[in-house]
Amino acid sequence: MTDSTLTTPHTPTDLPDGIRHYIDGTLVDSVDGATFDVLDPVTGRVYLQAAAGKKADIDAAVAAARRAFTEGPWPRMLPRERSRVLHRVADLVESRDARLAELESFDSGLPITQALGQARRAAENFRFFADLIVAQADDTYKVPGRQINYVNRKPIGVAGLITPWNTPFMLESWKLAPALATGNTVVLKPAEFTPLSASLWAGIFEEAGMPPGVFNLVNGLGEDAGDALVKHPDVPLISFTGESSTGQLIFANAAPHLKGLSMELGGKSPAIVFADADLDAAIDATIFGVFSLNGERCTAGSRILVERSVYDEFVERYAAQAQRVRVGYPHDPATEVGALVHPEHFDKVMSYVELGKNEGRLVAGGGRPAGFETGTFVAPTVFADVAPTARIFQEEIFGPVVCITPFDTDAEALTLANDTRYGLAAYVWTNDLKRAHNFSQAVEAGMVWLNSNNVRDLRTPFGGVKASGLGHEGGYRSIDFYTHQQAVHITL
Ligand code: NAD
Asked: GO terms for biological process (predicted)?
């Protein structure tokens, strides 16, 4: 028997009437009263208005964060005291994971089970940086008879955090946790497509005992609120995750102020499957790698390169498995691919699907899935025989669309893998140990997974090369980004 609530759109109960900014411990509207529409991707219905922040709202938020930094207790608290607050944040996020997942899934179209995983990861990010900050050790050097030198690590000030709409709550936590753990104060500008889950942070921080002004949130469009945050002279740091083209603009806008920048940008990551690989595992992992999170994942393995001797078998089996991926309503626990985040993004992904029909051989998907005539649903789509010059091979689609290309030699595989402007992740499938390491070390990617899926230890560096990013986050690298390391020298 089918549960009919799983085959019709779902609206969570107790949605807020609207979304406001959170400045200096208070929920406020925009100074000019402006709002923007927020819609749910399944029905396309505008379900609430969010405050549309502009320069005046950013000015107020930065002033509050600056006051909290210069006068408030947060930067001066012992790491252990800040750590306790962050652990309470983690506890609260964990205790609300089901509600968070429900709201995130509704607002972004992510499958509910995957949204739940992301909520738990957000809690883990807070726990991780809460632990790391108390374990922080800094260098001391002694030149015998002459000098002692030590590092005095200090928070920098007001950190501007600008985040995208894919896994929004989790990606916000990835910046909030280290920025706050190190004693900075923050202004968060979440993505305008998905402001719902971000609106929960205010209550969580208040309950956890965060002093007012330490965490501030301004909603709004990138070109208004985001732009004003980047250009604000009292914001010395910008941590940005989003498209490479937006990153370039932010880089230019931050230049006059010589701001510290951390940029996590786009990707077009290759998965390279050699003939000696465990094909069952490679197929399962590369299906997950591009279709989980609706394909709206920066590290999606969206180009699969397959050694020619197993190419035909791989394509046939891959296409069959892609057709079995279950598309459904985001709130259905059986759903593997939900609804894309927004009609605008749906149109973009669909334009690539149409383009792909001329650039490759369509072997699965290619449009809306059966039974979903409305909403932003896209069937898992696979193009084979895609040439490296094709736009679908070169450009980030950010949806459930993958291209497969054959290769003959290791050298050709490496050339193909490196043949895009991006360099975020790579996935290598082979049982030859030497080849695995040689290939991984040569591939132009910030992160490589060998015979494995996209699972990360939070201590490892996260970041891309080429157009995929600037700098690294993760573990102590995040602590370094959010702190000054002052060198103090004493002559003996
Ligand atoms: P986007 O660049 O359109 O927007 C990201 C954020 O930047 C939003 O909050 C937006 O409002 C803001 N913004 C836009 N213009 C701005 C401006 N001129 N000044 C300041 N802020 C501005 O990206 P998106 O479409 O929200 O996200 C998808 C992109 O993010 C993809 O390219 C994806 O690969 C990338 N991404 C990268 C990572 C990573 O870690 N490398 C992780 C997730 C997503």
From this structure: 4-hydroxyphenylacetate catabolic process
